[in-house]
Amino acid sequence: MKGFAMLKIGETGWIEKDRPKCGPMDAICKPLALSPCTSDVHTVWEGAIGDRHNMILGHEGCGEVVEVGALVKDFKPGDKVLVPAITPDWNSLEAQAGYSMHSGGMLAGWKFSNFKDGVFGEFFHVNDADGNLAHLPDGVEVQYAPMLSDMVPTGFHGAELADVQYGDSVLVIGIGPVGLMSVAGANLRGASKLYAVGSRPACIEAAKFYGATDIINYKNGPIDKQILDLTHGKGVDKVIIAGGTVDTFDEAVKSLKAGGKIGNVNYLGEGTYIKIPRAEWGVGMGHKQINGGLMPGGRLRMEKLGSLVACGKLDLSKLITHKFNGFENVEKALMLMKDKPADLIKPVVII
Ligand code: NDP
Ligand code: ZN
User: What atom of ligand 1 comes closest to residue 101's alpha carbon?
Assistant: First the structure.
């Protein structure tokens, strides 16, 4: 089969591979729609998780089941399915401890385009099919389904990590597709003031659609200075980080009230240390929590998030700015993600 792969750090290309084999609990799917991710860009061009050779890329897609193992109960060939980017081993001790995304080791629930071939192949393998696939709900268009693999669950996890509560003032740093879903997630969880940080007009418009009440441009000076101005020196209750760099934590901590919480879902592709400002962290005693997490994967979460879309409470149409038809266009879509033209939020490829 054909797949679009990372050949080595900094290099991508089309390769031929054997079709993946199906274990007793697994499924083999063919893609129906695919989307590239900023994480693929960190992985290939920043080498952020180390070198990978001839590994098929991609972890955002929806598919059709073509084969299932003998022990799979709830899925059969022909089923259209949502596929999470994170596919934990549900019988692992880490999953039993509540950290499914780290099943088998830190971040090891993230298998596609990390430890194994991703979804940018003519076929892809899904471990633990009953635990990780979800039926594509009626009312969710195939073109939007790849947004449920990663953008929605990751953005929403940012709101969970920051522990957004009714009435909280929330700062969302970064309004690419992940941050936009953090805005939507924080809004659904009852945020009051929702400050969104970005500079591109397309993202700003979408952020307002998803519930942002105020926009901050990080190019106009430090975010914390702008937040303190807007909040009369008080700061915000919660911060979600979905963009920026290792230095963004400095601004996040300074923007936060004592007792506040930061939820980070940004993939830090560069730098050795994260800086926490001593004085604004209450000289170590400010009760400002910093939680960073990979989104939990799995079927239940896919079903629940899918139902938010199916019942009309979450409109994913504002995330997609570029549409392609045909498998061969995953290459173009990934290059768009790398080059990030100003009007891009997210591309999708319909197969
Ligand atoms: P984008 O690149 O599309 O968006 C990044 C956002 O951050 C933009 O709004 C950008 O503003 C803003 N930004 C850039 N620099 C700064 C800065 N110095 N300070 C503040 N804001 C800044 O990324 P995505 O939305 O696709 O992804 C966001 C991150 O989430 C990525 O690192 C991605 O790898 C990661 N991720 C993490 C996952 C997880 O499970 N934890 C899963 C999927 C993705 P603008 O462009 O408007 O100027
Ligand atoms: Zn992704």
Answer: 40
Tell me which residue has its CA closest to atom 12 in ligand 1: 174
Q: Is the CB of 255 under 6 A from ligand 1?
A: no
Residues 133-179 have pLDDT tens digits of: 999 999 999 999 999 999 999 999 999 999 999 999 999 999 999 99
Question: Which tens digits make up the pLDDT trace of 98-128?
Answer: 999 999 999 999 999 999 999 999 999 999 9
Ligand nearest to the CA of 120: 2
HEC string of the chain?
CEEEEEEECCEEEEEECCCCCCCCCCEEEEEEEEECCHHHHHHHHCCCCCCCCCEECCCEEEEEEEEECCCCCCCCCCCEEEECCCCCCCCCHHHHCCCHHHCCCCCCCCCECCCECCCCECCEEECCHHHHCEECCCCCCCCCHHHHCCHHHHHHHHHHHCCCCCCCCEEEECCCHHHHHHHHHHHHCCCCCEEEECCCHHHHHHHHHHCCCEEECHHHCCHHHHHHHHCCCCCEEEEEECCCCCCHHHHHHHHEEEEEEEEECCCCCCCCCCCCCCCCCHHHCCCCEEEECCCCCCHHHHHHHHHHHHCCCCCHHHHEEEEEECHHHHHHHHHHHHHCCCCCCEEEEEC
Distance of CA 74 from the midpoint of ligand 1 (Å): 36
Give yes or no for residue 78 having a pLDDT over 90: yes
Q: Could you tell me if the CB of 156 is within 6 A of ligand 1?
A: no
Domains (range + CATH), the chain: 2-150+295-350 (3.90.180.10), 155-292 (3.40.50.720)
Banded pLDDT at 48 (limits 50, 70, 90): confident
Does residue 49 carry a pLDDT above 90?
Answer: no
Question: Which residue, judged by its Cα, is nearest atom 1 of ligand 1?
Answer: 176
From the alpha carbon of 199, which atom of ligand 1 is closest? 47
The bound ligand whose nearest atom lies closest to the alpha carbon of 61 is 2
